Predict the 3D structure of the following.
Amino acid sequence: MIGPGGWDTVAAAAPVREFEEDWSPAIFLRNYWYVAAWSEEVGREPLQRWLLNEPVAMWRRRDGTPAALADRCPHRGAPLSNGRIVGDDIRCGYHGLSFCGDGSCTAVPGVETLPAGLSTRAYPVVERWGWIFLWMGDPALADESAIPDYHWKDDPGWAGRGETLPVAVNYELVRDNLLDLSHAHFVHRNTLATDAVVDAPVTTEFDGERLRVIRDMRGIEPSPFFKRLCGFNGKVDHRQQVEFTPAANIVISVRVNSTENPDHAFENRVLNAMTPETDRSTHYFWSLERDSQLEDEALTDAMFTANRDTFFEDVAVIEAQQEMLDRAPEPARPVRWHVDKGVDRAQRWVAKLLREEAAQCAAAAEAG
Amino acid sequence: MIGPGGWDTVAAAAPVREFEEDWSPAIFLRNYWYVAAWSEEVGREPLQRWLLNEPVAMWRRRDGTPAALADRCPHRGAPLSNGRIVGDDIRCGYHGLSFCGDGSCTAVPGVETLPAGLSTRAYPVVERWGWIFLWMGDPALADESAIPDYHWKDDPGWAGRGETLPVAVNYELVRDNLLDLSHAHFVHRNTLATDAVVDAPVTTEFDGERLRVIRDMRGIEPSPFFKRLCGFNGKVDHRQQVEFTPAANIVISVRVNSTENPDHAFENRVLNAMTPETDRSTHYFWSLERDSQLEDEALTDAMFTANRDTFFEDVAVIEAQQEMLDRAPEPARPVRWHVDKGVDRAQRWVAKLLREEAAQCAAAAEAG
Amino acid sequence: MIGPGGWDTVAAAAPVREFEEDWSPAIFLRNYWYVAAWSEEVGREPLQRWLLNEPVAMWRRRDGTPAALADRCPHRGAPLSNGRIVGDDIRCGYHGLSFCGDGSCTAVPGVETLPAGLSTRAYPVVERWGWIFLWMGDPALADESAIPDYHWKDDPGWAGRGETLPVAVNYELVRDNLLDLSHAHFVHRNTLATDAVVDAPVTTEFDGERLRVIRDMRGIEPSPFFKRLCGFNGKVDHRQQVEFTPAANIVISVRVNSTENPDHAFENRVLNAMTPETDRSTHYFWSLERDSQLEDEALTDAMFTANRDTFFEDVAVIEAQQEMLDRAPEPARPVRWHVDKGVDRAQRWVAKLLREEAAQCAAAAEAG
């Protein structure tokens, strides 16, 4: 139990931004890599997926490399993904224009000589660790070194499984859910609940590149999840680190060990890529990875299922939250306390990055 | 049949208000008691209900008294009603803030000392006659003596039954339907129809507190409803009184007696509380009460069922009407005649009350 | 294959109109006859149909002639079509006002003397060739000689069948689909596809009354449709003429004959009346007529089914196109080439007619 003082007191919040004027969930960070698909979703049949309010057509060339174009034919506006892959190119299913992965038009039916420069928008695309990443902003700025680190997904020292969860909320509500794990005590009463998560002090670390929210809980009762799946009986030490990197990536590192016998330990990573589909829907790509009992498929199944059931509980809460944010007027005095540290830090950071990106765009527009 | 003259002539209506500019179905009278629920709907599990475009969470304390709060947590906006009742309080299901029925925050998880004044909006609530009434405006003005009179619902001298009908229209269309019962001849052709209802003179009485629309029909053929359920065979005298009190209450008093034998009489009350849910949906609480054959449950059943089937006919008509008002342009020359007296009086009255309430709010805002 | 030059080159299109500012799919040509129903749909029960965003009630008088009124009672706005036909008139199902086919109010329940001029809007209506045509603009301008020619529908020298297809797009996308039949090669790969349709030169003819798009394909491989249903084996000559007349009528004339044996020929007409229901939905009335084997019902069935399956393919494409036009931003460089001649000519023509009609309305408003 935390005494009064600073963040440890409940306070009327200084709003991060003016909701009425400043805050638009339609504004997404653009100059970032977003997870767009699982590797196995993209093949020789076109895949349509909406990302950041934009329709994207994805497919693989004959050599297996993925390609991604704006999914709207510049001729009449039909979605290219309704067409077919012919060789390396995608051919519109309406009047047959073809485009290759760099966006160039490669064929216009009935026309011999194509004019130079006829093209549509291409998205830089990189396949890594079993996910397809798309750069949603200025292609000239795309930099592969900025791809968020999800290496655990195919690191031979780790094992696990994940899926995509469609969530009918702005991606921020998914992010904020993960940045304040005190909700576990209330939302996940039968799986992850522990008194400690609401009482433990919260540390935040921010270095301009990543934001970390850390809870170090010593000698606590293990949550039902770790009791059941990892065989902890007595008291445990439980350390949570939630690391956020823009635009929409969170890696949760959990280490639980027996307080009496610190060598009896379990460690996992929950990978969370929350890619906006629209202002009010999110492709929530997640995977749960562990570095022990790698061959134990039954454990993989059990952990996947437990985590997924837990996420369904989150989805129910945040979809109800989204409805209230949309339909009901803003309360006069929003409150914040120590559990909110991470959420508020992330909100301020992303607001700043959005302003910087807007300024960058304005400067580029003026220059160009 | 009424001859020409005044209201008895069809006339192009002087519009009650300018539809384009003045009339907004989003404007509800606020400083009034509205029926929010049946007593049995509110218990130890939270109930969410939207009223006047606002989400409300209702529950009962341990002593059985009802409580009602704005159903949006001031922390992150989640609906409190997704949480649980703990003792007398409601606890948010997301991060665990608790509130008691007066709106005060009673617990913040992990925080020892709460700041003074941390609270959310509470609605004055009164339980009476089997209904839960909420005051939707300024709590300082809530006055129990202003609760609309529905005492028949649990008066031992009366018996009956009712239910809530969800209707996808602005509440005004439900009200106006009841204020012009001439529709019975056309909408309820097989139950309540009688030629007299369209021909009989209409009297309106208005004393600044209540509006009454009265039809006194002597020596008429009884409608199928009264023939079948009350055994009237010959001619009857049939008196209807529709009494409207703001914001949205109507009590219909009906007395039918044999013209030949005035002691063979039947009397009932139809109670109608038309609480807005949103601009385009209404919780229509109704009950049909009679003062005779109190023990006859089969008669209660038969009357309830007949009335409900009749109301389903109304719902079909007014939902179609709402669609037209929303989708089709205003006709050039709306017409009104004697059957419209009550509707127009009510519309003008409520428009005046809305203006007064707006002025009152503006004055309060200036003063405070 | 067409070489470069003029329309035969792909070019960034000079937009027909500014999409953001000028172009509103809500603007329909009004002073035209539109197909509103099949004869057999209109009878002694009222039919409600939305046309050009307006609700219309249609029925037949006792002598069988059709009538059409605005489907909104001037009393309280209920749809007249929810009422009943009494004699020649339609009676509102809410409070019983009656109207005859010219729009005059013929009865107000309980009122003896009606004021002069009490009426609602009537639509000029003509039944011809098995279709009901409505004039959607100024009744004073309605001119039966302007009814679009669909005489093949009941010409004894022709046989065929059709239906109404509901399509969730603005009617323009249906029209444009038909004005550029090069889509057949891609959308209808298994039925109407032929290389020739994309390679053949396109001729347009425009005389201020009608727009014709003509493809004359000599010595080509017949499409699967004509192979299967008309028994063409060797090369054929295939002439398509797509004739558009405003507001929304297209007659496609097709003649196919064996190149070797020109007397082995088949000729049909596809009649297409694309009546807007709303901005985003269309009643697509079509019929396929031929002038040979008139008694062969099995052939009628086979051709009807084949054509309908083909149209389902079109609907899938243009509904996807509509979604993109609505949800995705305009591409920077729309492209056009020779296949687009007809579409662009029609778009410019209709834009001009809309401007003229707007000017006409403005002048009338000033004068009147």
Chain C touches chain A at residues 1-4, 8-11, 176, 180, 182-183, 185-187, 198-200, 316-318, 320-321, 323-325, 327-329, 331-339 (CB under 8 Å). The two ends of chain C are 57 Å apart (CA to CA).
